[in-house]
Design a protein that fits this description.
Blueprint: H1 2-27, E1 38-46, E2 49-57, H2 58-62, H3 71-85, H4 87-90, E3 91-93, E4 99-107, H5 109-112, E5 127-136, E6 144-147, H6 149-152, E7 158-165, E8 168-174, E9 180-182
Parallel strand pairs: 1-7
Antiparallel strand pairs: 1-2, 2-5, 3-6, 4-5, 6-9, 7-8
């Protein structure tokens, strides 16, 4: 019975980001708790695919949560986007699994807003949602993930991680001192 539910759980975890993003847009970030320095990471392993979903307040990634207002803030946003695009440096799956990064999608509506259209963003909480997909040549050897977000983003203090694999589900709290997620 437990194994019969696994495909449904994996399908939900893979589909959930699309639903969550849709709801998030209409709910202006009030769907989930917004705590500075605390991110959420959902990990799903399905065959050779390793899917990661990161949800984080922008403050933990940038130090601010509004559309960039000056050259220094614009440069900070560009640097953050570069770091996220190079997800192989932020997430290191078990080496023996031979995983390669296939795609990265980042959504941060408040960063894309034009200043005139987002005058109230300074008072609002703004989040970033990012999806990362790795393909692993040796999925049977995929037993964990080194999460290196704390080094790249010093304002990040904690990550609430959830993992779903063929072996089951697991929830873990990660920090700069405990950043390896095993399953």
């Amino acid at each position: 019975m437990k194994n019969a539910l696994l495909p449904l759980t994996l399908a939900w975890l893979i589909a959930a980001p699309a639903f969550a993003q849709h709801e998030h847009k209409h709910d202006h970030g009030h769907q989930h708790a917004h705590v500075h320095g605390v991110a959420k990471l959902e990990v799903a392993v399905d065959g050779g695919n390793l899917s990661l979903r990161l949800e984080s307040p922008l403050e933990g990634l940038l130090g601010f949560e509004h559309a960039p207002r000056n050259d220094q803030e614009r440069a900070t946003v560009v640097e953050m986007r570069k770091k996220l695009a190079d997800a192989g440096k932020l997430f290191a799956p078990t080496t023996a699994a031979q995983c390669t990064l296939k795609s990265v999608q980042v959504a941060a509506p408040s960063l894309d807003a034009k200043p005139a259209a987002s005058q109230n963003t300074a008072a609002e909480h703004a989040d970033l949602d990012a999806d990362f997909l790795f393909n692993c040549a040796q999925p049977a050897k995929l037993t964990g993930l080194d999460v290196r977000l704390f080094q790249a983003f010093p304002n990040m203090r904690r990550i609430e991680a959830q993992v779903v694999t063929a072996k089951g589900q697991k929830a873990t709290r990660l920090s700069s001192k405990m950043r390896f997620l095993s399953w």
